[in-house]
């Protein structure tokens, strides 16, 4: 169990002060994967760096396994830090060392015997899928491979906690997914608790069980991913979860009219919420209201029993029938926008 209690941190530069963290509290269960999301400058990096006291808070407590890290003396803090791995956005590998030697570094600093280092490093390289790269140097590796080396190095001292500071933001989307899958596998295989920070909701959706949203140094909300996504009214959360405007197919867009006319049918963009499924919505339109429709686009994501996202429908009934469907959307607080008529 990790308990971050009432942490505050202010940075002083010349005559200005900047409050990076303002009375932040967060609990993390052992074996969980927790994501902290926020915009640049929100306080994410400062928060994650206070967990292992790379950044010492002005006030508050960091309690891990019953010990308040803020109160530990230097030697004891150094000993505890060995069991907290950390991976960074830019890998921080030593260019003069091979992959094997980069992973071995924490073990060498801990005066582990050479035979044990060899066994341990080979085991870690196998876990991250780089056993054939042991003698290569970082300059010959791709970004994803470099991050795998960094992950292996972070696991060298058998940590119970892994801190990830924007660990995928320098990677392309496909590589990001492979690294996130690796982190999930490590969490499940080794039982390591993972705390990560990111500004990308896709990262949160891919790996995290619980989420905390931070903005301007304050923790806005925390909970399961489903609970966070349900809170669409908060402007900061809304910016992260908004699936964006759906583009209208080009051929249809050329014919689109702003005003209704005979022979034209409305194109309606519908934003789904957790209270209604895609299947229920479409069944309501077709089976109950007997309105023909064309599903032009769908961007839907399922989280547990709920779905979120958007649909682009063309309602093809009579004008009064189509209006009944829009009335139904409004009555049931299903956000909808008529994009035009075609």
From TrEMBL:
GO terms for molecular function: ATP binding. It comes from the Bacteria. SMART domains: AAA (SM00382), NIL (SM00930). This is ATP-binding cassette domain-containing protein. Pfam families: ABC_tran, NIL. Residues 2-241 form the ABC transporter domain. Keywords: Amino-acid transport, ATP-binding, Cell membrane, Membrane, Nucleotide-binding, Translocase, Transport. InterPro entries: AAA+_ATPase, ABC_transporter-like_ATP-bd, ABC_transporter-like_CS, ACT-like_dom_sf, MetN_ABC, MetN_ABC_transporter-like, NIL_domain, P-loop_NTPase.
């Amino acid at each position: 169990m990790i308990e971050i209690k009432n942490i505050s941190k202010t940075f002083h530069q010349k005559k200005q002060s900047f409050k990076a963290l303002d009375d932040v509290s967060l609990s993390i269960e052992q074996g969980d994967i927790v994501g902290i999301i926020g915009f640049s400058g929100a306080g994410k990096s400062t928060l994650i760096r206070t967990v292992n006291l790379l950044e010492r808070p002005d006030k508050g407590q960091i309690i891990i396994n019953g010990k308040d890290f803020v109160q530990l003396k230097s030697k004891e803090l150094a000993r505890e830090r060995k069991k907290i791995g950390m991976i960074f956005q830019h890998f921080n590998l030593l260019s003069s060392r091979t992959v094997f030697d980069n992973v071995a570094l924490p073990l060498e600093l801990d005066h582990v015997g050479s035979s044990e280092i060899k066994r341990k490093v080979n085991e870690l390289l196998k876990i991250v899928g780089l056993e054939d790269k042991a003698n290569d140097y970082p300059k010959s590796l791709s970004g994803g491979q470099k991050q795998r080396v960094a992950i292996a190095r972070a696991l060298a001292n058998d940590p119970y906690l892994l801190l990830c500071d924007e660990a995928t933001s320098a990677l392309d989307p496909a590589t990001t997914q492979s690294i996130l899958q690796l982190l999930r596998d490590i969490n499940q295989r080794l039982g390591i608790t993972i705390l990560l920070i990111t500004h990308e909701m896709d990262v949160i959706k891919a790996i995290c069980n619980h989420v905390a949203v931070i903005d301007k140094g304050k923790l806005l909300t925390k909970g399961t991913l489903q609970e966070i996504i349900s809170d669409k009214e908060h402007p900061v959360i809304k910016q992260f979860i908004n699936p964006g405007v759906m583009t209208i197919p080009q051929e249809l867009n050329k014919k689109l009219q702003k005003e209704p006319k005979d022979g034209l049918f409305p194109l309606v963009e519908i934003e789904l919420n957790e209270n209604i499924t895609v299947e229920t919505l479409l069944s309501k339109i077709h089976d109950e209201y007997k309105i023909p429709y064309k599903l032009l686009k769908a961007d839907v994501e399922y989280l547990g029993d709920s779905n979120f996202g958007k649909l682009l429908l063309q309602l093809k009934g009579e004008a009064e029938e189509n209006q009944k469907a829009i009335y139904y959307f409004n009555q049931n607080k299903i956000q909808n926008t008529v994009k035009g008529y075609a």
